[in-house]
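Folds vary. Our protein:
___
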Amino acid sequence: MLGGHRLHHVGGERRARVLTMLWLLSPQTPMFFMGQEWFASSPFHYFVDHKPELQAVVRQGRDAFIGQFESARHALEREGYEEHVDERAFRRSQLDWTERECRTGPLTLHRELLRLRREDPVLARQDGHQLMGAVLSESAFLLRYLGGEEEGERLLLVNLGSELELSPCPEPLLAPPWDEGWRIGLSSEEVRFGGTGSCSLDSLRGETSWRVPGMTALWMTSTRESRTGPGPRMAG
């Protein structure tokens, strides 16, 4: 990204927590920029140490690559932007390690999500073939993780917009497995992660509707413990 801006610099910390949950709960192996796990204040520039004649060629190649993005191409070609890739970029990218002590919310979120990747049997398989998805609105979607009979299933709700009400609820992937219900495992808005507080399952579902909170990601597991009545528990 031009300027070395981090995700939370561009979209704010609340949106960054949502996207962090999506990123770390997806099947692929995640990769981090140093300091991202605590939302470091320093940028992360691209920097190299080549001889002058090679440096110019490297710059041309990098400009051509990032020029595939329209905004970056406009900045390079029309606005005269020149990205620093030398020692200045290296110095600006150095981390302030004391931030780890005061930015505990993002750090706790990353640790909890990585623990889930290790310990949850459905996630630990990292099997993209057992993943289904559906779009709920222009800014919201869900991912359904299929597990075995003993493991149950998982649901990730991602809403990058305002509160969404589905009434009546038309999406079958929101329905829990037969004879089971959903339990909220993690929310990007938990206070320990730096949020303003999570929601309860009761606040999500009505008799015929779902209400998905805005700018929030929710990780849910299927469980018989949340069953309150006879027969299957449906989403809407």
Residues 106-226 form a domain with the Immunoglobulin-like fold (CATH 2.60.40.1180).
